[in-house]
Amino acid sequence: MLVLEDLAYAHPVMWGNYSFTMTAAPGEVTAVSGPSGSGKSTLLDLIAGFLEPTGGRLTLDGVDLLPLPPETRPVSILFQSESLFEHLGAAHNIALGLPPGTPRAEVARKVATALDEVGLPGVGNQRADTLSGGQKQRVALARTLLRNRPVLLLDEPFSALDDDSRAATRTLVRSLTEAHRWITVLVSHHQDDIAALAARHYRISSGRLLLA
Ligand SMILES: Nc1ncnc2c1ncn2[C@@H]1O[C@H](COP(=O)(O)OP(=O)(O)OP(=O)(O)O)[C@@H](O)[C@H]1O
Ligand SMILES: [Mg+2]
User: Fold this and answer.
1) Ligand 2 center–CA 37 separation, angstroms
2) Whether residue 53 has its Cβ less than 6 Å from ligand 1
3) Which pairing describes strands 28-33 and 55-60: parallel, antiparallel, or unpaired?
């Protein structure tokens, strides 16, 4: 379980404080919605360690995550777009999910398996800037697969996609979450994403998370 207890933050120029309390379970997508500017990305930044909270607790299976810098937190984050290095090939982008020093043969094998798992066998040599938006998001998910961190944070990951690739990518997120027992936290404005994916849904209101 990922547990936030009164995780507190205030941006330098702001109306008030955030105080986030929520629970997210493995194998489930937990959705967070709220109007623009309500603090959704701030919430993910606090979980990922890009922002330091002013108080409260953040634990994964009882282990305190707050002392860990972002690079060692058990967390992957996927943004709306621009998650790939455009001038590198798909396989190269995915391989960045593996620790440096991984043997070449192992890299090749794991990258190929991850590409299969996201339904893109054969695009490994294609440069990222030649992929469609939906393909890019799936390559980014493949990289997340190799990172193999228990918590996956998604910040509006489908909003640049058309309806078809949106539905396909959504299904993929759900099946990967279930298969790998990830704790997936999805930020989305879209009711249909939330209805299709989320086991639990929080809404941000006045700096607090309310179960919707
Ligand atoms: N670095 C910063 N310094 C000061 N204020 C900030 C900073 N980053 C965000 N804010 C403010 O904090 C509030 C929440 O921002 P945040 O990016 O978390 O919103 P959001 O819910 O993700 O919005 P959107 O749906 O538009 O992405 C906003 O009022 C924003 O202006
Ligand atoms: Mg945001």
Assistant:
1) 7
2) no
3) unpaired
Distance 189 CA to ligand 2 centre (A): 10
Q: Hey, what amino acid is at 208? A: R
What is the residue type of 172? L
205 lines ligand 1 (CB under 6 A): no
Q: What residue ranges of the chain are covered by domains with CATH 3.40.50.300?
A: 1-74+153-212
Sequential DSSP letters for 39-69: SHHHHHHHHHTSS--SEEEEEETTEE-TTS-
Protein residue with least CA distance to atom 4, ligand 1: 11
Which residues are within 8 A (CB) of 34 and not within 5 positions of it... i.e. 6 or more apart? Answer: 40, 203, 204, 205
**pTM of the predicted model, to two decimals?**
0.92
**pLDDT averaged per 10 residues, the chain (length 212):** 97 83 98 94 96 97 97 91 87 93 94 92 94 89 90 89 83 93 94 92 96 92
Give the residue among 8, 81, 10, 46 at the shortest CA–CA distance from 151.
46
Ligand 1 within 6 A of 37 CB?
yes
Most informative mutation of 15, 18, 41, 206 for ligand 1 (most atoms within 8 A of CB): 41
* Residue 128 and residue 90 in contact, taking contact as beta carbons nearer than 8 Å: yes
Q: Is 207 in the pocket of ligand 1 (CB under 6 A)?
A: no
For the domain bounded by 1-74+153-212, which CATH number is listed? 3.40.50.300
